[in-house]
Amino acid sequence: MVSTGRTQLIIAGISTDVCVTFAALSAVQKGFRTHAVLDASGTWNALASEAAATRVYRGGVTLNSTVGVSAELQRDLRNDGGQELATLYEEYAIPFYGSLLPYVTARA
């Protein structure tokens, strides 16, 4: 582990089959809980991307998406910043999310 005490690592890269794969598998070997953000990474064709995803998954990496990672970091959209995150989802990632905003951002 690193001196910061962090135990998790989120990785994205230009090339899923090189940048993400090598870094993610190395991080797992060093004891990090590692997430590969597949929709924030790319490669030259779909087969290479699928092969890389399979390889890192089998190596212990959690496959994730940008929305999935951001939601996990936020934990609950009722927390501070949740309304803003929900609005970003609606505007840029999940167009139908606006219909859910009253429910997911309501304070108990």
If you compute it from the alpha carbons, what radius of gyration comes out, rounded to the nearest whole angstrom? 16 Å
Low-confidence stretches: none
- Helicity, as a percent range: 40-55%
Strand content: 5-15%
Distance between the termini: 38 Å
Rounded mean pLDDT score: 85
Number of helices: 5
Number of domains: 2
Main β-sheet, in a few words?
Answer: 3 strands, parallel
SSE order, one letter for each helix or strand: EHEHEHHH
What is the strand tally? 3
- Order of adjacent strands in the largest pleated sheet: 1-2-3
Structural class: mainly alpha
Q: Which word captures the global form?
A: flat
Describe this structure in words.
The protein is mainly alpha-helical. It contains five helices and three strands; from the N terminus they run βαβαβααα. It has a three-stranded parallel sheet with strand order 1-2-3. α1 packs parallel to α2 and α3 packs antiparallel against α4. The longest helix has 14 residues, at 16-29. The chain is flat, with a radius of gyration of 16 Å. The model has no long low-confidence stretch (mean pLDDT 85).
